[in-house]
Amino acid sequence: MQIKVRVTGLLTEYFPAGKGILPVSLEKPLTVKEILQQIKVNHQLVMTVVVNGQRRDLSYVPGDGEEIVLISPLAGG
Amino acid sequence: MYGYGGNILRINLTTGEMNIQPLSQDMAREWIGQRGFIAKILWDELKPGIDPLGPANKLVMSTGPLAGTLVPAGGKVSFGAKSPATGIYGESCMGGHIAAEMKYAGYDVIILEGASSKPCYIYIKDDQVEIRDASHLWGKGAIQTEKALKDELGEEFQICTIGPAGEKLVKYACISHDFGRQAGRTGMGTVMGSKKVKAIAICGHNSIPLADLEATVVKGKEMLKGCFAKENLDEWQNYGTAGVPVWANNIGAFPTKNFQSSYLEGNENLDGKIMREKMVVNDKGCFGCPSPCGKYCYVKPYNVYTEGPEYETTALIGGNCVFTDIEQIGYLNYLCDELGLDTISAGNVIGFAMECFEKGILTREQVGMELKFGDLESFKYLVEKIAAREGIGNILAEGVKYAAEQFGGDSIKFAIQVKGLEWSGYESRSAPSNMLAYMTCDLGAHHNRAWSVTHDIAVGRKVLEGKARKVIELQHIRPFFDLIGCCRLQWVEIGFELEHYPEVLRYVTGFDYSQDDLMKISEKVWNLTRAFAWREIEDFGRKYDYPPARFYEETVTTGPNAGDVLSKEELDFLLDDYYKLRGWDLNGLPTREKLEQMGLGFVVRQLESYGRKIS
Amino acid sequence: MKIALNEARCSGCRTCQVICSLHNFNENNPKKAAVKIVGHFPTPGHYEIKICDQCGLCAAVCPAEAIKETDGVYRIDKEKCTGCGECIEACPSEAMVQHPAEKAPIKCVACGQCVELCQRGAIYDADTREVQ
Ligand code: SF4
Ligand code: SF4
Ligand code: SF4
Question: What does CATH list as the number for A2-71?
């Protein structure tokens, strides 16, 4: 199965695909946290996960073809 | 002049004299606006050694060339003066609508000099400027005052006010505006209070001339739509900075129990989602903002309205004083806003007092009641005592550094401040670059200039190499927004690209800056404010850049980073690297070469005339 | 273009006013905008939007017959307008704006610029979009 990953804000600086979309192939369904491990992105850099406009967290398991958007932490004012 | 209100308004409160001078082309081109103007004016016009609360200090209010235009979020204004909290350069930035209004009235800068002998407010309607009696407002809350003046003068007026804390000269009194926006830091409300100015009310009817109107419209629309299209816009406008506390806690950066820890049990109750469900009544934004972060709240159990709490307030009232009920924090936020207190410093001061009590450094007799972390009555009691400068409040009103000097024991070790300014809401023993950012901020421990917790996470939280470089880069970019009159949050939070700004500045002002030119100007201002501190304090330098001993002697007590500490050697490594990259000497003072290279030859001459030895 | 409002969504940003003045006056001057944003703070904490709904009452009361309708939009003929202010008084939406530098009142001509830039959907076009 394949999913797509995109990041926003400060995270783009540390994301392999920058501002682009990163396709990720998975052998089995994984949580967002596990996926981040696979693509070597520190999960602490992710504040919120958004899938189809819904606010999710790192334990969310994306389905085939889904695009997950990782929201980077905010700088708090 | 294109992009500018075009004038500097100067009001002498002692004599009642006023004058309006045109803003010069050179001043505009070389210092851009807002914090650039403030730093230059304070350097030129303040004599070193003046009493920050005496008539010789000046309160300078200034905005930048993009404020009031179609460029996204052009609603920022800064206030500057010699700070009563730190004794060095002070400045604080605020959103809302008054920056734009100033420009429509024709002003980029308003300078308040001298001091009034009785309470007054400044009335500005285009070129009609008056010092009016404010005895009917004196003693009123900051928000009540704004409301009273709106009712009196009309909805078109934009008004900033101080609360009772500013009148009583509490060292961390803020200036408030738009029912929930504050210029909180470095005691700008205190300076306003010392001049007996309760409010500034502005209404303007003029247009801002644009160098290229059509191009500004096209580019402005493109920029706005660029912001509208950001994926994280909804997250941002639903929760604002209230989306941050849970993340900050999970990574171990949430100030807890007066910074003993970076992890707060029960922090999940502070999540933006819960706040939204329980209290938010309206998403409120500043002028021109495509991504409104203001969460206007009704806090039902206490029957009060307040904007926020935003992240810093939740961190410092919530975590630092150990409140895990968002409605209680909302209520305490309301109290601080109405009293006119900076919530960052107030949360620090009260957390500090609570710890002193716990440790037996403060007693029931001294305080007048028993203080406990997480106790609403304790907070309420102290905040009211502080604003009135009564009893223990009279000492706490001076800030944590002074209070620690009075209370003694080892309390100075956990008075969480740098240069006398209380620390913003990130515990940083596990984030060296952020630690360095707050240590070296020209104002004291403030997040406005650089924030880099994500950088620490990304490149390694124990790593020290390369951190100084990142901090310096951010110290030029972030406060760059405080030169142009725009909010930085579109860039910081929703990822709006920096590249747009030089282009749009060209359309608005006609000045052709490159990205590099803009960063150079930002760096020039940085060097100037550092020099300002040195001009004030003869032995200024490295020793003023250390955090409190808690951060290098005590380990984080709980949470994911329990056990972390940065040793003094590590801090020195960071500082050495930082000074070197800045072109400063080992004591952290700008060198002749650096100052001259920045076009600050006049600074060299002045420093020398005051006997400073420049290397 | 049928301008409609969802005031609960308004964040008070006044982008609508800036673009209105830029588009209709070639000036960056929100005080010349044909839409008013009125904050109700500190209580109950929301914004009110005052904008013309093209009801035509202004045209009916204008003694100089300076306000004419075309395609459902009422426009003021600045040449004919004497600046008497009758229409301002009559407007049930309190939507007409006065500016010290303009003799004629300022009135919405349904150009739709504000709709284009209202990110919040607080001002929207009911012809093309359902209420948010
Ligand atoms: S993001 Fe927040 S602070 Fe910045 S302009 Fe918008 S409402 Fe104001
Ligand atoms: S643009 Fe929209 S959200 Fe902004 S003030 Fe106008 S109506 Fe309100
Ligand atoms: S539709 Fe056009 S004229 Fe009417 S308020 Fe909006 S921008 Fe102004």
Answer: 3.10.20.30
The CA B290 to ligand 2 mean position distance, Å, reads: 9
Q: Which of A4, A39, A41, A44 is the mutation pick for testing B, counting most B CBs within 10 A?
A: A44
Please give the residue of chain B at the shortest CA–CA distance from A47.
B247
Could you give the strand order of the β-sheet that contains A22-25, starting from the edge strand earlier in sequence? Answer: A22-25, A2-7, A67-71, A48-51, A54-56
Q: What is the distance in angstroms between the Cα of C52 and the nearest Cα belonging to chain B? A: 19
Q: B264 vs B261, B356, B374, B547, CA distance in Å?
A: 8, 19, 12, 22
Class of domain B234-421: mainly alpha
Q: Is C24 at the interface with chain B, CB within 8 A?
A: no
In chain A, residues with a C-beta closer than 8 Å to the C-beta of B453 are 73
Q: Note the pLDDT of residue C130.
A: 67
* Domain spans, chain B: 7-203, 234-421, 435-495+514-609
**Number of C-beta neighbours around residue B591 at 10 A:** 17
CATH assignment, B435-495+514-609: 1.10.599.10
Structure tokens at C31: 């005080």
Residues constituting chain A: 77
DSSP B162-213: --HHHHTT-TTB-EEETTTEEE-GGGHHHHHHHTTEEEEEEE--PPPP-TTH
Compute and round to an integer the Cα radius of gyration of chain A: 11
pLDDT digits (tens, 9 = 90+) for B426-437: 999 999 999 999
pLDDT tens-digit map of B564-580: 999 999 999 999 999 99
pLDDT at B240: 86
Query: Using a 6 Å cutoff on CB, does residue B99 contact ligand 1?
Result: no
Cut 0.90: pTM above it: yes
Domain boundaries, chain A: 2-71
For chains B and A, having 3+ Cβ pairs within 8 Å is answered: yes
How high does pLDDT run on average in chain B?
97
Domain that holds residue C83: 3-125
Residue B230: what residue type?
Answer: K
Residue C16, domain CATH? 3.30.70.20
Residue B320, pLDDT score: 98
User: If you average pLDDT over residues B217-233, what whole number do you get?
Assistant: 94
- pLDDT band at C49; cut points 50, 70, 90: very high
What are the pocket residues of ligand 3 if the criterion is a CB atom closer than 6 Å to any ligand atom?
C 3, 19-20, 23-24, 34-35, 51, 108-114
Domain count, chain C: 1
Given pLDDT bands bounded at 50, 70 and 90, which one contains residue A54? confident
* Residue B174 contacts A where some CB pair is shorter than 8 Å: no
Q: What is the dihedral of CA A34, A37, A43, A45, to 10 degrees?
A: -150
